[in-house]
Amino acid sequence: MKEKIAKIKENSIKEINQCNDEKALNEIRVKYLGKKGELTAILRGMGSLTAEERPIIGGLVNEVRDELEAFIQKKEKEFKRKELETRLKTENIDVTEPSKKVTLGSLHPITQIIEEVEEIFLGMGYQIADGPEVEKAIYNFDKLNTPVDHPARDLQDTFYITDDIVLRSQTSPVQARVMEKQKPPIKIICPGTVYRSDSVDATHSPVFHQIEGLVVDKNIAMTDLKGTLEMFAKKCLGENTKIRFRPHHFPFTEPSAEADVSCFVCGGKGCRVCKGEGWIELLGCGMVHPNVLTYCGIDPEEYSGFAFGFGVERIAMAKFGIEDMRLLFENDVRFLKQF
Ligand code: DAH
Cis omega (within 30 of 0) on the bond before 185? Predict the structure, then answer.
């Protein structure tokens, strides 16, 4: 029996010496000292020993067990220390290393222009209205006095979802939505995204942005429209900006006009931004057509109004000197960082 114990001790010590990680060490512990371990088995079999042998063997087993336990613990500590050493070596932090730069984003040029225009009109007592981008054709066209055979309704210009539903091709349908819901006085602007079936080039994009304006009240006249837009042009593009109106046609206004502003880069002398013209085309506008008022439940005998609409990209491009509209949609941070 003594020899068997000695053999167990010899084997286990050899195995502990050879093992090289905590997992293997644990397996050795189970193999010898566990419930079903080899050393434990000897204690269990003590019944078959004589009374004289029992304390001797028992004492021996306990001695060996304590020795093994102590050795295993020592080995375990060694493994832990080695692990810590490698972690300290591999996970060291160089506190002198320069930190990573945190870059701060900025508002997109389109958003900047929209916010600037909103500020100007809020200051003139306007409210900001909103409408859906997936719009009923009836709002995008019919209520705006644009009959079914009007060329603007053409499949080539408008993205149709169904016969009756389109991606709005202008922010003007918000006019109709507001007039239906709200009694005059109405003073709103509506910035938003619009869609047209245009191919992409330096000055066209199938997705772009407009800002719509609408005022309806008693005794609103063309002079109100002109004064408002002149004020807006000066605030947005500079105090010396001049504005001129040219007759035009829009189905939803009568009379209609297009407004140009004097070039705010060259002051009207002619330069690259205004393409030598001295003037930059800014927006469409006019007095709200009586049909439109009627279609939206407002009596044209009692009320009149003016409306206008312009493209945000065009203003952003002129103001920031951007020559290609595509840059505004590519989201290249090297471009966007400049604004
Ligand atoms: N909706 C027109 C367009 O997209 C712009 C416009 C012209 C809006 C005249 C108006 C307006 O409100 O009165 O070309």
Answer: yes
For helices 22-33 and 53-90, the axis angle rounded to 10 degrees is: 170
Report which of 220, 191, 190 is spatially closest to residue 287, judged by C-alpha positions. Answer: 220
Asked whether 152 and 141 are in contact (CB, 8 A), the reply is: yes
What are the backbone dihedrals phi and psi of residue 211, each rounded to the nearest 5 degrees, phi first?
A: -125, 125
- Atom from ligand 1 closest to the CA of residue 170: 4
Tens of each residue's pLDDT in the chain, 339 residues = 788 888 888 888 898 888 888 888 888 999 988 888 888 888 888 888 888 888 888 888 888 888 889 889 998 998 899 889 888 888 888 888 888 888 888 999 999 999 999 999 999 999 999 999 999 999 999 999 999 988 888 877 899 999 999 999 999 999 999 999 999 999 999 999 999 999 999 889 999 999 999 999 999 999 999 999 999 999 999 999 999 999 999 999 999 999 999 998 888 899 887 889 999 999 999 999 999 999 999 999 999 999 999 999 999 998 898 989 999 999 999 999 999
pTM of the model: 0.72
Tell which residue, 318, 332, 233, has the closest CA to residue 275.
318
Please give the distance, rounded to the nearest whole angstrom, from the Cα atom of residue 256 to the centre of ligand 1: 9
Say yes or no: CB of residue 212 within 6 Å of ligand 1.
yes
> How is the beta sheet containing 304-311 ordered, strand by strand?
127-128, 186-195, 207-217, 304-311, 279-288, 253-262, 243-250
β pairing state of 253-262 and 186-195: unpaired
**Does residue 174's CB lie within 6 angstroms of at least one atom of ligand 1?**
no
* Closest C-alpha to ligand 1, atom 8: 309
Burial environment of residue 22 by CB neighbours within 10 A (0 to 12, 13 to 18, 19 or more) = middle
* 320 C-alpha to ligand 1 centroid (Å): 24
